[in-house]
Amino acid sequence: MTGILYIVATPIGNLNDMTARAIDTLKSVGVIACEDTRTSGKLLSFFNISTPTTAYHEHNADTQTARLIERLQSGQSVALISDAGTPLISDPGYRLVKACHDESITVVPIVGACAVIGALSVAGLPSDKFSFVGFLPAKQHGRIESLKAYQDRTETLIFYEAPHRITDCLSDMADVFGGEREATLCREISKTFETIKKLPLADLLEFVKNDPNQQRGEIVLVVAGNTQKEQKADYDEWLLAIAKELPPKKASAIVADVLGIKKSEVYDRLLELQKA
C-alpha cells in the first residue's frame, strides 16, 4: 500500500494561523519535505514536531522527486511544506505532485494560510474573477513586456513583488496600466506591521516612495482589471471626427481626457484607423 503526499499550508506570519490538522499531519508522516530545512525547523520546533525533514527546492527537485516517490511507494507518507503559506504558490512542488498523479499516489491538501487569497479578500476589488501572476521579471524591460500582456485583461490581477523592487514595479504599472488604475498594497499580511492600502496606482507609488517602511517585507499587489476595454472599443467614430478638425495629437488628447485613458493608446489607435 502506498503512502499519501500531504500538501500542508503553514502560517505566513502569525503562528496562530497554524491549524490543528496541519500539526497532526506533520507529526504523523514519515518525513517532511521543506523548501528550507533551517527556516521550517524553527516552525516545527515551536509546535514540538520532531518528524525528520529533507530539503526539497527548485535546485534539487529532479533528484528529490524520485527519492520521495520511492518513499511513498514503499508505504511511507510524506508532507510537503514551503517556507510560509500554501506550497506550490510561487514555490517548488509541482513536479512532485505531478509525479504522484502519474504514479497513482494519493495527494491530500491540508488547507491554511495563503497570501494570494488573503490579499484578495481585503483588497476591495472584484474577486469573482482573478489571475495570479506571481513575480514579474526583475529587469525593467521584461517587467514592462509582461505587464503589457495583462494590460487589457478585465479580471483582477495579483502579483508578488520583492521589497527592493516595489517602487520600480509600481512605477511601471502606472505607466502601462495608467496611474488611475486602482490597486491595493498588501504588505506583511498577518504580521505586526501589516499594511493594507488601496489607492490609484500613481498615488500608491507616492505612498510607498514617501514611507521607507512600505519598502520592506513580503508584498502582494492586487490590481484592478481594465474596465475601460469596452469603452475604448466605442470611440473610433468620434475620434476620427475630431481628428478631421484638429491635429492628431490634440484630438487624441481630448478623447483620452474624456475617457480617462492613456493619450498614447488613443494616439496609436488613431494612427491605425487612419492607415486602414
From TrEMBL:
Keywords: Cytoplasm, Methyltransferase, rRNA processing, S-adenosyl-L-methionine, Transferase
CDD domains to which the protein is assigned, alphabetical: RsmI (cd11648)
Protein origin, superkingdom: Bacteria
SUPFAM superfamilies: Tetrapyrrole methylase
Location in the cell: Cytoplasm
Domain RsmI HTH: from-to ranges: 231-274
Gene3D superfamilies: Cobalt-precorrin-4 Transmethylase, Domain 1, Methyltransferase, Cobalt-precorrin-4 Transmethylase, Domain 2
Coiled-coil spans in chain: none
A molecular function GO annotation: rRNA (cytosine-2'-O-)-methyltransferase activity
GO CC entries: cytoplasm
Annotated EC: 2.1.1.198
Domain (Tetrapyrrole methylase) ranges: 5-204
Catalytic reaction annotation: cytidine(1402) in 16S rRNA + S-adenosyl-L-methionine = 2'-O-methylcytidine(1402) in 16S rRNA + S-adenosyl-L-homocysteine + H(+)
Reported function: Catalyzes the 2'-O-methylation of the ribose of cytidine 1402 (C1402) in 16S rRNA.
Family: Belongs to the methyltransferase superfamily. RsmI family.
NCBIfam families the record matches: 16S rRNA (cytidine(1402)-2'-O)-methyltransferase
Listed PANTHER family: RIBOSOMAL RNA SMALL SUBUNIT METHYLTRANSFERASE I
Name of the molecule in the record: Ribosomal RNA small subunit methyltransferase I
Organism whose genome encodes this protein: Moraxella equi
Gene coding for it: rsmI
